[in-house]
Design a protein that fits this description.
By secondary structure, this protein is an alpha+beta fold. Among the domains are: 184 residues, GROEL, domain 1; 163 residues, GroEL, CATH 3.50.7.10. It contains 18 helices and 19 strands. The strands form 6 sheets. Strands 7, 8, 9, 10, 11, 12 and 13 form a 7-stranded mixed β-sheet that branches. A hairpin with a 5-residue loop joins strand 2 and strand 3. The protein is elongated.
Length: 557
């Protein structure tokens, strides 16, 4: 098939036999990277613009995401149809794999990779071998690490002021100053609490749940809020089954012992059988009911004698079992299915273990909570397990409208993730473009120590960083050329950034514009690694290609 086949004319992949080589591959890579870059380019910096994406949520329900955060933009696209272009898919998958644990830096890595690919392809088209370009980029990236070492400052895991600055810098969505400050404070408080609970060990932000509500004040619980809501049959007007909105717990219960179960309770498996399972007569049916009741009471007695105060179950618990448990003094919290991880976060919070059967019950699997209370709000019933000793936390934040709740949960969750990176690494950098301007200054002084044609690649590396700074300035409504020229002239090696209101140079440390060291370091490395993959492509087979028809063409001798 013609190697110059136009990718835009492709039909369904299963119907295609497609090969492109050499120059056509490079143009295809250029167009694909520009396409990915265009999606997130305007999301760079605090003056970013928002995107609306029609996608599906993690429960496969239709969802509309409005965000200016590059991570969330790409995540929303993935949850929808994803990227069908093979180069774009490779690009995004590589970014996602490298940035997943950081919560920030995706826009930076995509924009830098786009610039490095674009400038690298220009070098290759001028006759420079791809491996020479890749080598030059690697040398420049290695020296970048040394520059960032000199630029970084220490950050204590519980330094509330620095963590607030980090959280505030990470918020790219459109927010008022008061809301941004409040959210930064909430995020810093949460990260500090998690750091204190773990004694400086790994901070697992998956154990932090953020709930945005309209009817409650801000609160940080060391514990878990287990949510329960009606299922479809309970919302059907024709159904005889109703959701029980009656509180399972009156007031506040203190110092409770908790058992956790993720499977349905089968009474026959938890007690000693005393009769046949099938009724053969009305009298037998009555006897079987009595035996079932006895089994429920025996189950309840066993739990009570084991010290269980509250039984939490993912599945619904039959009413006779609930009554027997209540008579024995054991409270049931059942139907804790959404989100499914709540039961496992409860285990982390209470120090217990999730059982698959009540036959696994022992003192070792029981957890404890300092306080438990229950509230009913809108379409959910919340059971709040608080004052726990584990490392699971729940942050409740107030919002003005229910429709904005999910968006604000994402904003605060991201700020927490970024703050946790700073707390774990104990290193931060100045923001506002200062790391890039420091690298540019250093390389422009030292680049001539690089041998041969590799110098050209190093020069394009620094030019790519300038491209990045120009986009940051343009997104703030500034003249990109004048702003970057002024910045690089003012850079003194201590980290000078851009005042995105005026375009003048500023000291990010004094202004509190701070980011984790690893965010920019990883963005640089991610961009370099992706560029290496893409610049060394010389053929694309897509799919069902007959290899016998393929004749490689050597362009570089």
């Amino acid at each position: 098939m013609d190697a110059r086949a136009d990718k835009r004319d492709l039909g369904p992949p299963e119907d295609q036999e497609w090969i492109i080589q050499d120059k056509e591959v490079r143009e295809y890579v250029r167009e694909s990277t520009h396409g990915v870059g265009s999606i997130v380019r305007s999301s760079l910096g605090p003056e970013s613009l928002e995107k609306m994406i029609r996608t599906r949520d993690y429960q496969d329900r239709p969802e509309t995401v409005i965000t200016a955060d590059a991570d969330q933009i790409i995540d929303a696209i993935h949850r929808g149809d994803g990227f069908n272009d093979p180069v774009a898919a490779l690009f995004i998958d590589s970014v996602d794999a490298m940035q997943r644990s950081l919560g920030d830096g995706t826009a930076t890595s995509v924009i830098l990779a786009e610039a490095l690919v674009d400038r690298g392809l220009d070098l290759i088209d001028s006759g420079i071998h791809p491996n020479t370009v890749v080598s030059g980029y690697a040398i420049a990236a290695s020296h970048t690490g040394d520059i960032l070492d000199d630029l970084a400052r220490e950050c204590a895991p519980t330094d509330q002021e620095i963590l607030e600055h980090v959280a505030r810098t990470a918020m790219t969505d459109t927010l008022s100053d008061d809301v941004r400050s409040d959210y930064a404070r909430y995020a810093a408080e949460t990260v500090g609490a998690l750091a204190s609970a773990t004694d400086g060990a790994w901070l697992d932000t998956e154990m932090i749940d953020v709930r945005a509500v309209t009817d409650l004040d801000q609160e940080l619980y060391q514990g878990v809020i287990a949510s329960r809501r009606p299922i479809a049959i309970e919302e059907d007007e024709r159904s005889h089954t109703d959701f029980d909105w009656t509180p399972s717990i009156e007031g506040v219960r203190n110092d409770v012992t908790v058992a956790l179960l993720d499977q349905e309770i089968t009474v026959a498996e938890t007690t000693t059988p005393t009769t046949e399972d099938r009724a053969t007569s009305p009298g037998q049916l009555t006897r079987d009911r009595n035996v079932y009741q006895q089994r429920c009471e025996e189950l309840a007695r066993n739990l009570a004698e084991s010290g269980v105060d509250i039984l939490v179950s993912q599945d619904r618990i039959d009413v006779p079992i609930q009554k027997a448990l209540a008579n024995a003094g054991v409270t049931t919290i059942d139907g804790v299915k959404y989100p499914k991880e709540d039961i496992h976060r409860l285990a982390e919070a209470t120090g217990g273990a999730v059982m698959s059967s009540l036959s696994d019950l022992s003192l070792e699997v029981l957890g404890t909570a300092g306080s438990v209370r229950e509230i009913v709000r809108e379409d959910e019933k919340w059971t709040i397990f608080a004052e726990c000793e584990g490392t699971a936390f729940t942050l409740v934040i107030p919002v003005g409208l229910d429709s904005t709740g999910r968006r604000h949960e994402r904003i605060v969750s991201k700020a927490i993730e970024v703050g946790a990176v700073a707390a774990m690494d104990k290193q931060v950098l100045p923001g506002a473009g200062a790391p890039a301007s420091s690298v540019i200054r250093s390389w422009r002084q030292d680049r001539w120590s690089v041998p041969d044609r590799t110098q050209l690649a190093v020069t394009e590396y620094t030019n790519a960083l300038e491209d990045y700074l120009r986009i940051l300035a343009r997104n703030a409504g500034l003249d990109p050329i004048d702003t970057v020229a002024t910045l690089t002239a003012a850079e003194d090696g201590r980290g000078t950034g851009i005042d995105l209101d005026t375009g003048a140079p500023l000291d990010p440390w004094e202004e509190g514009i701070i980011e984790p060291r690893r965010v920019f370091s990883q963005a640089i490395e991610t961009a370099r690694a992706i560029t290496e993959q893409l610049l060394t492509l010389d053929a694309i087979f897509y799919p069902d290609v007959d290899l016998s028809q393929f004749t490689p063409v050597e362009e570089h001798e």
